[in-house]
Amino acid sequence: MPIWKKPTDLNQLNAANQGTAAQHLGVEIVELGDDFLRGRVPVDQRTRQPFGLLHGGVSVLLAESLGSIGAYCASPEGHNAVGLDINANHLRPVTSGWVTGTARPVHLGRSTQVWQIDLVNEAGELTCVSRLTMAILVQR
Length: 140
What we know:
Number of helices: 3
Keywords: Hydrolase
CATH class: Alpha Beta
CATH architecture: Roll
Helix content: 10-25%
Pfam families: 4HBT
InterPro entries: HotDog_dom_sf, PAAI_dom, Thioestr_dom
Protein name: Hotdog fold thioesterase
Family: Belongs to the thioesterase PaaI family.
Number of domains: 1
Order of helices and strands: HHEEHEEEE
Shape: globular
Strand order of the largest sheet: 1-2-4-5-6-3
């Protein structure tokens, strides 16, 4: 049974990123399942730090983008989702290719949601794990 409470499709989700930091860094939403959202970011000149590795902040941007989009889509009509807290543990460096993140809810409450976002490299190896807490607010 899908967790999504708002109409969602990949084209709509990617269009919402137009003109944002996520678009500037090349984030793409690539899959929407019944209870998960998947996206990716390239490891290139936009996203590497000076030592040639994927910048940790880009990993966090991907994680927060996926968790925020998921939380918004899983919240009732008339509600927004805003970030309260995010943490990330960087486990393995990435120097090229794509990093793919999968966001799944841990808790879908009335006023808060918690999302787990796991990032992997092209070999499927875990590169970063992140946990995001979102506030669910009535739109004004």
